[in-house]
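Let us practice reading a record.
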Amino acid sequence: MESIAIWFANTLGQYISAKAVVFIVSMMPILECRGGLLVASLLKVDIVEAIPLAVIGNILPLPFILLFIQKIFEFLKKFSATRGFVEKMEQRAMNKSGALANGEFLGLLLFVGIPLPGTGGWTGSLIASFLKMDFKRAMLADVLGVFLATVIMSIVSYGLLAHLVY
């Protein structure tokens, strides 16, 4: 993920503002707020400005995923060119959903909030949709998870831990 974030920082950073890059990267699957905060750190965006951009950018796509992803996947499965990709995404989400089946809300919150590879708001929303979680509960767990991920990644990306210790 770091190499992708660096690529976006170097490539997009030449053409649009650093804050716009942070926002765009935060909306993207896989990168999300984690990548957005890494990019913000690389582009020297002040943390006070970076956090809201990363959080809003990460949260913005989530209600659409929760509400529409199953319909979109049904449509895309009709075409041989996209069927394999969709089935792979569905299988990936279902493989990760086992941990959420018990304690859905807390499980989803922690799944989204603990920055590990393959976790985050996009995958969490996809899983919540497949588990047919209540929209409001899923959205709340997603948002709280994004906040948790933001706190963790702010400490990592900006080295806040070092500032707190000294």
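A brief commentary: The mean pLDDT is 87.
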